[in-house]
Specification:
- The chain is α/β, with parallel strands linked by helices.
- It is built from 14 helices and 17 strands.
- The strands form five sheets. The chain has a seven-stranded mixed beta sheet with strand order 4-10-9-8-7-5-6, sandwiched between helices.
- Helix 11 runs parallel beside helix 14.
- The longest helix has 21 residues.
Length: 487
């Protein structure tokens, strides 16, 4: 497929797919400016979101005892190279420079993505797949270039293995309703890891009730890893599906998904991998994993909200029936019968989130312009630094100590409610998450109903970790009357 040169008309979006292996297309890591589109990516007059005068960094308090880690910034990557592209990181919150440590909930967007969205709507907006005019053809080619880029990013064999959805939640529900309804029955087992997000538990409960299958939890070890011995014991000829996160959103645990998949396949079971928390932290190769299904959300990969991806093996996709009907997924319709379009369009009823795919394409090209191994090494070093720094805060306990993990640090602080902790930190411009994190079974494993969570991304710095630690120490030292959420 030849991609039209839309950038020549001011459309500041990268339109070339990422090369296999996630190396990116040389020269497309930085998306051209939208040029003549006023205000795109700058939001004049909206200083609350994208201030025109970035705040000066405030002095930070070093975390006592945190020490300095060697190679915190490995060759080939520095967080500043990413931060310079993220406009929102230059705003202030409550009079302080923003410290965004809520990346597990959503990531912030580079200007390339912001500009791509504005430029698409300003110069190339059209519906896709059905129009005969020039802009319809261009929008269609751009949309399908996004599909090709995702396939390459995940190591899929073909763009046709990629279905666009609203996010990970919709992807899992699609599998449950389309594949599960046809393949699950009375007495069948669906094994679901205890550390799963609710979106990888509830859809299986719903379809199990309908088909009279049963959902079987896979227990965790005290460290927050999946108990592999228990998993092996639970697998049987009744097992039809194993649902497992590639990285936990509350414990950071990275399970041995490849080995778990191989074991499940010995029993003829399919494996669905929730990659929502994984794709922004380390390279993923779905064919190497041998995953039957793999899902992720664009907004956790620096792309817009409302766009996500479901990968499925082609032989499985070929057997899946539509779970929604409408336009785009048909070949012909009359009142006697309907014939359907081939996959992936079969599973994409209605007008898709076209601009979301444009933004996802821009995000992939931005993200893959960095050396992925260097980014992963940096995040690992930053996580280790953060673990050491948080250990200096009296009464603070980080949940989970699995050896393989991403930079998610969920914690409790003695005497303080998690919501009160988040409120205190927000006063210092530090954004974290507090609550059950849509992973209540994982928290219940530790006897908890809620916790605070700081989650890191490639644009976070050791100075921001120091600010987090200093603020938590001030909370512990503040008079009780000044402490929110005191328990």
């Amino acid at each position: 497929m030849t991609i039209p040169d839309l950038t020549a008309r001011g459309l500041g979006v990268p339109v070339l797919p990422v090369l296999p292996g996630g190396t990116g297309v040389p020269g497309t890591g930085a998306v051209p400016s939208a040029g003549s589109l006023p205000g795109v990516g700058a939001a004049p007059g909206s200083t609350a979101v994208l201030p025109s005068n970035p705040a000066e960094p405030a002095p930070t308090a070093a975390a006592p005892g945190a020490g300095e880690l060697p190679q915190l910034q490995p060759p080939g990557f520095t967080p500043e190279s990413a931060r310079q592209d993220i406009p929102i990181l230059h705003r202030t919150v409550n009079g302080h420079p923003l410290v965004w440590l809520d990346n597990g909930a959503t990531t912030q967007k580079p200007r390339q993505v912001i500009e791509a969205l504005g430029a698409f709507y300003g110069t190339a907006n059209s519906n896709i797949h059905r129009g005969a005019h020039t802009m319809a053809r261009e929008a269609t080619e751009l949309y399908e270039a996004g599909r090709a880029a995702v396939a390459a990013f995940l190591g899929a064999g073909s763009p046709d293995d990629i279905v666009f959805v609203r996010g990970t939640t919709e992807a899992i529900n699609l599998v449950a309703q389309s594949w599960g309804r046809a393949n699950l029955g009375p007495g069948d087992d669906i094994l679901v890891a205890t550390l799963e997000h609710h979106s990888d538990i509830v859809p299986w409960q719903l379809i199990a009730k309908e088909t009279r299958a049963r959902v079987v939890p896979i227990p965790l070890t005290p460290e927050g890893a999946i108990d592999q011995d228990a998993y092996a014991d639970l697998l049987s000829s009744r097992t039809q599906l194993v649902a497992v996160s590639h990285a936990s959103n509350v414990l950071g645990t990275v399970p041995p998904v490849k080995e778990m998949t191989a074991l499940a396949h010995r029993y003829g079971a399919k494996v669905l991998v929730d990659g929502a928390q994984a794709v922004a932290h380390f390279p993923v190769d779905v064919r190497d994993l041998d995953a039957d299904f793999y899902a992720f959300s664009g907004h956790k990969l620096f792309a817009p909200t409302g766009i996500g991806v479901l990968y499925a093996k082609p032989e499985i996709l070929a057997g899946m029936r539509p779970w929604q009907g409408g336009g785009n997924m048909i070949e012909s319709v009359d009142f006697t019968r309907t014939t359907f379009a081939p996959v992936p369009h079969l599973l994409e009823a209605g007008t898709g989130h076209i601009s979301g795919v444009v933004g996802l394409l821009a995000a992939l090209n931005w993200f893959t312009s960095f050396d992925r191994d260097s980014v992963a090494a940096y995040e690992t070093a930053l996580m280790t630094y953060a673990q050491q720094a948080l250990a200096t805060v009296p009464g603070l306990e980080v949940l989970g100590s699995a050896p393989d993990r991403i930079a998610v640090l969920t914690f409790t602080l003695a005497g303080h409610d998690p919501a009160g902790i988040a409120d205190w930190l927000d006063r210092d411009g530090i954004a974290i998450r507090a609550g059950h994190h849509c992973a209540q079974p994982a928290l219940a494993h530790y006897g908890l109903e809620s916790a605070a969570r700081a989650s890191l991304a490639l644009y976070n710095t050791s100075e921001e970790v120091d600010q987090l630690v200093a603020s938590l120490r001030r909370l512990q030292e503040a008079p009780e009357a000044e402490q929110p959420g005191r328990t």
